[in-house]
Specification:
InterPro entries: BphY/WalK/GraS-like, HAMP_dom, HATPase_C_sf, HATPase_dom, His_kinase_dom, HisK_dim/P_dom, HisK_dim/P_sf, Sig_transdc_His_kin-like_C. Residues 258-475 form the Histidine kinase domain. This protein is α+β, with helices and mostly antiparallel strands and 477 residues long. 56% of the residues lie in helices and 18% in strands. It has helices at residues 2-12, 14-63, 76-88, 118-124, 165-216, 229-279, 285-316, 329-346, 365-381, 428-434, 440-450; strands at 65-66, 70-71, 92-97, 102-105, 129-133, 137-147, 152-163, 325-328, 350-355, 360-363, 388-395, 399-406, 454-460, 464-472.
């Protein structure tokens, strides 16, 4: 089974395909050249034989003329030439007069008989004919013509046949030589194709060994292959991929560390509070209630972190499909702001919604609701007293845009590139004070990206922040 599997992999390998291609490139032209050569030689040999016989017959036709209407066939010398010519080409010569009667036959089989064949009739009309008989003979007719002042008269026909056995014998020998030549070419092409295939595939084998070494080890090494331009380009691309994988691995490790820290902190606080209660024998009710209230807050904070983590996990699943539906975005934003206005009133922050046009779009309302709710809620929480939050909706022929601006504390310039990372906080002490988990903006970006959209942020420390979200009006699968 292992042997069959190995053979299957070999036949599917690039090495085998290159070898087969090179082998075909060497053998197919050789086969074509050999076949064309044999056909050309046979055709040329047959044409040469036909011309030779025809020339001899034309010479005979001049010797056979005896006056204007008579054929000279009684001459012993002439008969000897006919017999010699027939023997030379291992064939037969027949002389036919104007009455279609055979007056001379070198084989002496049909003398005196009438021969009214199509070729003979056509020859009496002045047309030479030539054709093969059973692939073994060439048969042709040559007219015997007497020329007067202005006319030409056909007084007889020479019907000659010549054997092609000699040509066939030559062709058999030549075919054997060509076949031997083709076998040599195939052997040489096979050897050359194996050598060239191994040479061409060597850079990929080198690359495979290098990648195998990286797989067995860490992600610290780089691929350094410069056998040819293509492998050098692949090597550079692979190194870029490795660099991104390192960033992903660092991000994963940092994320695990942050999750562990964030989940451990409330547990530590609850344990400290519980141990404080257990260490005191008689705890006043007021202190007991205060500690239990603190424990409840820590539990709520733990639940909030876990809920946000579960939300992120669901959004990160590529296989999970969006529940896309045509939605009135104006009404959708009004609903979100209506839900958040009590929080704004409690913080003494004014929330204003401005819509420049009526907008309908194909969106997953539940996911985008989380995104816009996080943006507006953050704008409220991280605002100043008596501040404002302005939400603006606009659209063009392809996208709709939502801007969330506030008059809050702003974000330092050096933090703008990291605010969408999980558990990242600009001001950790203030974030913990107002109950942030550091996952809100990560959830927001995940929802926006899932809709094939984009999110940008502009901020000045102490002046406020503006988030701009762009979402396609038609969802692109």
């Amino acid at each position: 089974m292992h042997k069959i599997k190995f053979q299957g992999k070999f036949f599917k390998s690039l090495n085998f395909r290159i070898m087969l291609f090179l082998l075909l490139m060497g053998t197919v032209p050789a086969l074509i050249i050999g076949g064309v050569f044999l056909m050309s030689y046979e055709r040329q040999a047959m044409a040469q034989l036909s011309n030779d016989v025809k020339n001899q017959c034309q010479i005979l036709s001049t010797q056979l003329r005896d006056g204007e209407n008579l054929l000279k066939t009684e001459d012993e010398v002439l008969q000897g030439e006919l017999t010699q010519l027939a023997s030379l080409y291992d064939g037969r010569i027949i002389i036919i007069d104007q009455n279609f009667q055979i007056i001379e036959d070198t084989s002496q089989l049909e003398e005196g008989r009438i021969m009214v064949a199509e070729e003979v009739v056509r020859c009496f009309k002045g047309e030479n004919t030539s054709h093969y008989v059973s692939g073994r003979f060439i048969e042709m007719t040559v007219p015997i013509i007497v020329e007067n002042k202005d006319t030409k008269t056909v007084i007889g026909v020479i019907l000659a046949s010549a054997s092609t056995d000699v040509i066939h014998v030559q062709m058999e020998g030549l075919t054997a030589s060509v076949q031997m030549w083709i076998v040599v070419v195939i052997i040489c092409a096979l050897a050359l194709s194996i050598i060239l295939a191994n040479w061409l595939i060597r850079p990929l084998q080198h690359m495979n060994r290098s990648i195998g070494g990286l797989v067995e080890g860490s992600l610290d090494g780089d691929l350094d292959i410069h056998d040819c331009t293509e492998t050098e380009n692949i090597s550079d691309t692979f190194n870029l991929m490795l660099a991104k994988l390192r960033l992903v691995e660092e991000s994963r490790q940092e994320f695990v560390s942050n999750v562990s820290h964030e989940l451990k902190t409330p547990l530590t606080s609850m344990k400290v509070l519980a141990d404080s209660l257990l260490m005191q024998e008689e705890v006043p009710n007021e202190l007991y209630r205060e500690f239990m209230q603190d424990i409840t807050e820590e539990i709520d904070r733990e639940n909030s972190i876990i809920s946000d983590l579960l939300t992120l996990v669901k959004m990160d699943r590529k296989t999970q499909e969006l529940n896309i539906a045509v939605t009135d975005v104006n009404e959708f934003m009004e609903t979100i702001l209506k839900r958040l206005r009590p929080i704004a009133e409690k913080a003494n922050v004014e929330v204003v919604f401005e819509s420049n046009r009526s907008v309908s779009a194909e969106i997953d309302a539940s996911r985008l609701s989380l995104a816009f709710s996080n943006l507006v809620e953050n704008a409220i929480k991280y605002n100043n007293e008596n501040g404002w939050v302005r939400v603006t909706l606009d659209a063009d022929h392809k996208f709709f845009y939502v801007k969330v601006s506030d008059s809050g504390m702003g974000i330092p310039q050096e933090s703008l590139d990291y605010i969408f990372e999980r558990f990242y906080r600009v001001d950790k002490s203030h974030s913990r004070e107002i109950g942030g988990t550091g996952l809100g903006l990560a959830i927001t970006k995940s929802a926006v990206v899932a809709h094939r959209g984009a999110i940008k942020v502009q901020s000045k420390l102490g002046e406020g922040t503006t988030f701009t979200v762009r979402i396609p009006l038609r969802y692109i699968v």
